[in-house]
Design a protein that fits this description.
With 331 residues, this protein is α/β, with parallel strands linked by helices. It contains 14 helices and 7 strands. The protein folds into 2 domains: 52 residues; 209 residues, P-loop containing nucleotide triphosphate hydrolases (Rossmann fold). Strand 2, helix 5 and strand 3 form a beta-alpha-beta unit. The longest helix is centred in the last third of the chain and has 29 residues. The two termini are 41 Å apart. 37% of the residues are buried. The chain binds guanosine-5'-triphosphate and magnesium ion.
């Protein structure tokens, strides 16, 4: 029975992947659900889609809540659509406006995009996904890429570590800040400045935009960078498309700069390595949790906390029991 179920799963994975490759939106939507929920066959599905061997440019849009990330994403999508490109947008833990929590004006602005067949929009919730979120996001972006979208926009709220991990799924990271948040120092602390390839001061229709632009330009001028790319500080009013063409142009410039220096490929390789390491770590932990005698990690933790053994002894014992280390080998 298990073999039959396995064959069925494989057939579904193959046909979903073929649907994705043929540009069928329904197949992509189903494939994303399979991957997001880690359903049986998701690995085969990803392998089939990867075999399409397509390349997209991945742009991350991150910044504080309410900075205008979704509005800017929609405006950029319109620019690229105007150039005949197909655009996929993935929004992580969105509050608005993709998920319906939008003000009327926002909903009116987003509606035409949602009707455009050249645009695919998907939301992902962080709640409940735990530490696996970043991995699932990478996989979803891979599915979109394998489905033929040349442009992928990844919107995340930039406040914590998970979000920074998610930003690593992008080739170009756009950090959106606003004068009203007045939080640029906070943003720097949250590590946004380090991941930024382009700064956008959005809501430039607000009077406090100028000083924020100056502060950011000073900060960028002071920061030392390994690559030759100096992040531009641009202004935009995403609600009226003002400045959005320049943001799109800067994204293009950044991509060309990356490609020219070999950094685009280097980013892809670094990203792959981080993902392999994460997968190996997860698999190792799961394996050790299964094979360890008694309660595995929980039992070992109680032993260590009670002074019965050290952290290092517990780790060595688990690794030895799990067949990862031989008795005479150091970790
Ligand atoms: N005045 C002004 N309002 C803007 C601008 N850009 C976006 N907004 C408004 O700001 C609000 C938040 O915009 P969103 O695009 O949803 O912001 P977000 O960063 O995606 O928000 P979250 O996903 O909830 O973090 C909406 O009501 C937008 O209409 C702008 O340039 N100027
Ligand atoms: Mg949003």
């Amino acid at each position: 029975m298990a073999a039959v179920a396995g064959r069925g799963t494989r057939t579904v994975a193959r046909s979903l992947a073929e649907g994705c490759g043929a540009g069928e939106r329904a197949a992509l939507a189903r494939a994303i659900s399979v991957v997001e929920d880690r359903r049986p066959g998701f690995r085969e599905l990803l392998a089939h889609v990867a075999a399409h061997d397509r390349r997209a440019h991945r742009t991350g849009i991150t910044g504080p809540p309410g900075a205008g990330k979704s509005t800017l994403a929609a405006a950029l999508a319109r620019v690229w659509r105007g150039a005949g490109e197909e655009v996929a947008i993935v929004a992580v833990d969105p509050t608005s406006p993709w998920s319906g929590g939008a003000l009327l004006g926002d909903r009116v602005r987003m509606a035409p995009l949602q009707l455009d067949r050249g645009v695919f929009i998907r939301s992902m919730a962080t709640r409940g996904a735990g530490g696996g979120l970043a991995e699932a996001v990478h996989d979803v972006v891979d599915l979109m890429e394998g489905s033929g979208f040349g442009r992928i926009l990844l919107e995340t709220v930039g406040v914590g570590q998970t979000e920074l991990g998610v930003a690593e799924a992008a080739d170009t990271v756009v950090v959106v800040l606003t004068p009203e948040s007045g939080d640029e120092v906070q943003a720097m602390k949250a590590g946004l400045a380090e991941v930024a390839d382009i700064f956008v001061v959005n809501k430039a229709d607000r009077p406090e935009a100028r000083p924020l632009v100056r502060q950011l330009r000073d900060a960028v001028g002071l920061s030392r960078r390994r690559s030759g790319w100096k992040p531009p500080v641009l202004t935009a009013v995403a609600t009226t498309d003002e400045g959005v063409d320049a943001v799109a142009a800067a994204i293009g410039d950044h991509r060309r700069s990356l490609a020219g220096s070999g950094a685009l490929e280097a980013r892809r390789i670094a990203r792959a390595e981080a993902r392999i390491r994460a997968e190996v770590r997860t698999a190792l932990e799961a394996h050790l949790g299964r094979v360890a005698a008694g309660g595995g990690f929980a039992e070992a933790a109680r032993m260590v906390a009670g002074g019965g053994e050290t952290v290092y002894e517990a780790a060595r014992r688990l690794l030895t029991v799990g067949g990862i280390l031989s008795a005479d080998e150091d970790p």
